[in-house]
Every structure is written in structure tokens, then in C-alpha cells.
Amino acid sequence: MLNIETFIDLGLDPGSANTLMCIKDKGLLVNEPTIVAISSDSEKLIAIGHEALNMHQKMHPGIQTILPVSNGIIGDYDTAQHLFRELLHKAKPRILFGIHRLVTSVPISITEVGKRAFFDMAEHLGAKETYLVFEPIAAAIGAGINPFDSVASLIVNLGAGSTQVAVISLGGIVSGESLSISGNQINHEIVQYLKEKNSLAISDYAAEHIKLQITATDRPERENRLTVKGFNLLSGFPETQEISTAALRELISTMLQEIILAIKKSIEVLANKPDVAVDILEHGIYLTGGGALLNGIDKKIHSETGLPVTICDDPQTTVSTGLCTILENFELYQPVLINNKTKHKP
Ligand SMILES: Nc1ncnc2c1ncn2[C@@H]1O[C@H](COP(=O)(O)OP(=O)(O)OP(=O)(O)O)[C@@H](O)[C@H]1O
Ligand SMILES: [Mg+2]
């Protein structure tokens, strides 16, 4: 029988781009890309996380990469389960562990079927008890906001696969929306733009690099040209092109505008709850997720809504910080968790 000491309480944030794991009382344990590389012939696992991402960028023959989470939802449960198990094993190789309690963040758009699949996966991972928490609620807790407070807060989680806008008060989501406009969507638009306007084919990962370069805070505004390598669809050869960043900035700005529209909409629906709207005026908007690092996003949202905007510290880890806080204060936060009562009855 396993010694009870070897059991851990685990927080899992299975993001479309990055998977984060934390252990109760120990903090962040894993922060790696949500990707695996397998052999195309045998389907044997070759690499996970950062190592698999390197393979994805420079495709090797005979190797296939899989992104098991997309748009914030786990699409390939077998691969995801394999990935989570291996990431945990990589971080804690010598411990004979089991998972006592698993708390995992899920998007607010998750369906009942999606929840069911999460509980099944957790069971296969060996978790004795499994709880789900909506990502914006975990983010709020990670940002130091009390989700049970009667004073409402507006959380915008800008992830790779979705953007979630949620008004949180009294332990629940008063109003919320999950948008498909996200970090990956911006990358996709950059790929499409260069294909159409420059006849240049680039990968999603090259687009990610372009996005990070043109939105970097230290990039001078006057530097409006960027060197991009890709495949010329007309000549059929790889080439290097100098592209204008102005049009790409415009493209990103248009997509941000849609996010701002959704934020405005989530505030407008509060017309019949004026007190909640007044709370938001007071507390403002909290930005989490990697997209919160988009240069100037806070100023833009502020100028369009007139509301104060706070970018959470280290916004890509806010959700996992929240998961850790939940594990460390389990009784307190239990009311915001979704569990699978029927499955875990003694
Ligand atoms: N400095 C930056 N500027 C702009 N975008 C950034 C920056 N840093 C990271 N990102 C974007 O943040 C996204 C990753 O954020 P995050 O790790 O929160 O997503 P995720 O949790 O994996 O996804 P999701 O929650 O949607 O499933 C990527 O799309 C990445 O391009
Ligand atoms: Mg996320």
C-alpha cells in the first residue's frame, strides 16, 4: 500500500498554449508548452513540452506533433492525459506519488460532456478527488480578489485559445462570455494576411514570433519594417521578405477592438444590476493570461471604457497561483468548485 505521505494535491491549468501545474504548499511545478511529439509510424511518445515544441518548429521526418488542447478545450483526451502524466513525472521523477486532490481550471464555455470528460481523465490520472473551477474564478483568486465578495470584479483572461470575460461576485459568475478571439487567432490572422498580401507562407509559430516582435514594449515605433522568412507561394522557393509592420499592427488592433466590444457588452448586460456596474467602476478590470502582455492593451481598454485597468503580476501564471491558493485553503474555496459527487461517493 502507498504511504499517505506520497500523495500530492495538484493544481492543473491545461492551457491551449501552456500547461501549468502546482502542488499544494510547494507552488508552481510545471510550466511547459501543451504539445507532444510522437513517432508517425509507431505513435510512440518522443518528446513533450519545450522539447516537443522545438520539434514542431523544425519538422523532422517521421515525427508528428499534437496539440491536445485547442480553444481552451481538451480535444484529444488520450494525448492530453499522457502529456500531463509525463510532465508530472518529469518534474517529480523520484517520488512514488499518487494524486489525492486534483483541482483543474476549465473555460466558462465548457459543456456537461466536457466536464464529464475531465472527470474521466482525472480518474485515469489516478486522482482520488477531482474538482473543476472556472478559469476566470481561479484567475481572480490568483490576483488576490475574494470571489465571495459582494463587490463585483471584472476579469478578462486573454489566453492562447480563448478570451474569457467574466463578472465575478458572491462566489459565482454574474455574466460572462468566452470569445474565440485569442492569441492563436491573432497568429492565424497574421498567417492569412502574409499569404494573401505577400504570397508568403509562414507557420503559426513564425506568426507567434512576429506578433511578439511587433508588440514588444521595447520596440521603437519608428521601426516599421520587419524581416520575415517564409515560403514564396508564387516562386515556390523559400525567401526572406521585408514586411511593413503597420498593417499587422492594424490587424492586431482590429482584433483587440472586438475584445473591447465584448468587455463593453458584459458591462452593458448589467443595466438591470446597477450596483454591480458601479462596483466595476470602482474596482475596474483585471487582465490575466498571456495576452495581457500585449503592449498598450491596458491603456487601450481604459481609453475605450473609462474604467481602471490592472494587468495582474506575471499574468500567465495567475490561474495556477489561484489553483495553489485553492488547494491551500480548500474548505474556504470549496463553494466555487465543481465536483463529481456521484463518482466520489464513498
Ligand atoms: N508579450 C506578449 N505579447 C502578446 N501576446 C503574448 C505575449 N506573451 C504571451 N502572449 C500570448 O499569450 C498566449 C498564451 O497565454 P496563456 O499561457 O495565458 O494561454 P493558455 O492558458 O495556454 O491558453 P487558454 O487559457 O486560452 O487555453 C499566446 O497566444 C501568446 O502569444
Ligand atoms: Mg489559460
Quick description:
The protein is α+β, with helices and mostly antiparallel strands and 346 residues long. It has helices at residues 49-57, 77-91, 112-125, 135-142, 183-198, 204-214, 245-268, 274-283, 297-305, 318-328, 330-333, 341-344, and strands at residues 7-14, 18-23, 27-33, 36-39, 45-48, 63-66, 69-70, 73-74, 98-106, 129-134, 153-158, 163-169, 172-179, 200-201, 225-232, 238-244, 285-288, 309-311, 338-339.
Q: What keywords describe this structure?
A:
binds magnesium ion, Nucleotidyltransferase, domain 5, 346 residues, single chain, six-stranded mixed sheet, alpha+beta, 3 domains, disordered C terminus, Actin, Chain A, domain 4, 19 strands, binds adenosine-5'-triphosphate
Walkthrough of the structure:
The protein is of the alpha+beta class. It folds into three domains: about 5-35 and about 70-140 and about 320-340, ATPase, nucleotide binding domain (Nucleotidyltransferase, domain 5), CATH 3.30.420.40; about 145-180 and about 260-315, Nucleotidyltransferase, domain 5 (2-Layer Sandwich); about 185-250, ATPase, substrate binding domain, subdomain 4 (Actin, Chain A, domain 4). About 40% of the residues lie in helices and about 30% in strands. The chain has twelve helices and 19 strands. It has helices spanning about 50-55, 75-90, 110-125, 135-140, 185-200, 205-215, 245-270, 275-285, 295-305, 320-330, 330-335, 340-345; strands at about 5-15, 20-25, 25-35, 35-40, 45-50, 65, 70, 75, 100-105, 130-135, 155-160, 165-170, 170-180, 200, 225-230, 240-245, 285-290, 310, 340. Strands 3-2-1-9-10-19 form a six-stranded mixed beta sheet, with helices on both faces. A five-stranded mixed beta sheet has the order 13-12-11-17-18, with helices on both faces. A three-stranded antiparallel beta sheet has the order 5-4-6. Helix 5 (about 185-200) runs antiparallel to helix 7 (about 245-270). The radius of gyration is 21 Å and the shape is flat. Adenosine-5'-triphosphate binds next to helix 5 and helix 6.
